Amino acid sequence: MKIVVLAGGLSTERAVSLVTGTGICRCLRERGHRAILVDLFLGVEALPEDPESLFDAADGLCPDARIDASAPDLEAVRRSRKDQSPRVFGPNVLELCQRADIVFLGLHGQDGEDGRVQATLELLGVPYTGSGYLSSGIAMDKAMAKRVMAAEGIRTPKWGVLDYAPEDAPRLAQELPMPCVVKCTTGGSSLGVFLPEDREELREALVQVRRFSGQVIWEERIRGRELTVAVLGDRALPAVETVPAGKDFDYAAKYQKGGAAETCPAHLTEAEAAAAGDLALRVHRALGLAVYSRTDMILDGEGKLWCLEVNSLPGMTPTSFVPQEAAAVGLSYADLCEEIVRLSLPLSRR
User: Fold this and answer.
1) How confident is the model at residue 117, as a pLDDT?
2) What is the pLDDT of residues 116-141, one digit of tens each?
3) What spatial distance separates the first Cα and last Cα of the chain, rounded to whole Å?
4) pLDDT higher at 246 or 180
5) Cα–Cα distance between 162 and 103 in angstroms, integer?
6) Cα separation of 194 and 197, whole Å?
7) H helices of 6-115, where?
8) Which of 145, 221, 255, 273 could form a disulfide with 67 if both were Cys (CB 3.0 to 4.6 A apart)?
9) pTM
10) Spatial distance between the Cα atoms of 186 and 215, rounded to a whole number of angstroms
């Protein structure tokens, strides 16, 4: 098949997305597909006389992608685009997507998981992988997702939306319950998430979180074992447990060597493992997600599971959680990529 792997874009998770897309693209090419990686924002400046020939480009147009310890400079990315257009879709992106048999969404964060790209592809009649535009948008917005969880009786920490001016931060820092988490509603890869230990750190968090897009919410901090469980098709995969090497599981801990210890499958009792899988499936179904997702949760000291959030386009670098969980049930990285394509093609929304 001709496959466009859409990655990059202007999300704070741009670097993660490019590594995800590169891994997926190379696996699909190894399996005989005519796959190419296209950057959502930068696009392809010039198409050859026969655009179809681009699907046979050397190494599928994959960049030399890596994840640094800090998030990418998005202003530098904007300046690097020759046409300086404000369009989210770069040159020739939609033209190439329309020539593909399916678009594999290797995007993360804003303009990838929020449903807008999915809606555009649907309007053009282009098949794509993963969940539809509506469920993607709801899952991406942490406040909306929590409202759905509450309606479905899914246990999630107490939370609230914060609407405040910068000068209100000192007052809020004294009023909010502690310990708590402060985060933007549309963040990912632990960017825009703050875990203050005292009220001075909370004040600083309330100032810093406004640098990220989306609403700001506070959430009760539940301490316990950090688990994540993927859903693939109609089944839950084995849980991963994460123990950060430092104080918190932040962006650097997620993607830099030695940042965290990850155990897959997690050392859980049979009952705990079943409950974690059941929770991931309940969240996946409640939000109307399709093909695959990943739910992050906490197992507290009393044995209760608390859903933190769900990812409709979870990380798919070769060492990400979902590939780890797939490997635990005998699916290689390439098998997983193929399975996502297989499950996505027949969806009725197309």
Assistant:
1) 96
2) 999 999 999 999 999 999 999 999 99
3) 17
4) 180
5) 37
6) 10
7) 14-30, 74-80, 93-99
8) 255
9) 0.90
10) 8
Tokens of 216: 């700001």
Please report which helix (H) or strand (E) contains residue 225, including its range: strand 224-232
pLDDT at 13: 86
What three-state secondary structure class fits 15?
helix
307 close to 145: Cβ distance less than 8 angstroms: no
Spatial distance between the Cα atoms of 61 and 65, rounded to a whole number of angstroms: 11
Section 322-349 average pLDDT: 94
For the beta sheet containing 216-220, the strands, ordered from the edge strand earlier in sequence to the opposite edge, are 159-162, 216-220, 180-184, 193-194
Q: List, as one string, the DSSP characters of 153-181.
A: T-----EEEE---GGGHHHHHHHS-SSEE
Tokens of 23: 């891994």
Which domains, ranges and CATH numbers included, belong to the chain? 2-128 (3.40.50.20), 140-155+223-342 (3.30.470.20), 159-220 (3.30.1490.20)
Cross-strand pairs, 186 = none
Cβ–Cβ under 8 Å, residues 216 and 140: no
- Whole-number Å distance between alpha carbons of 209 and 286: 28
Strands 180-184 and 193-194: antiparallel
What's the rounded Cα separation, in Å, for the pair 111 and 114? 6
The C-alpha angle with vertex 153 and arms to 151 and 154, in degrees rounded to 5, equals: 110
The SS3 call for residue 43 is coil
Coil/strand/helix, residue 320: coil
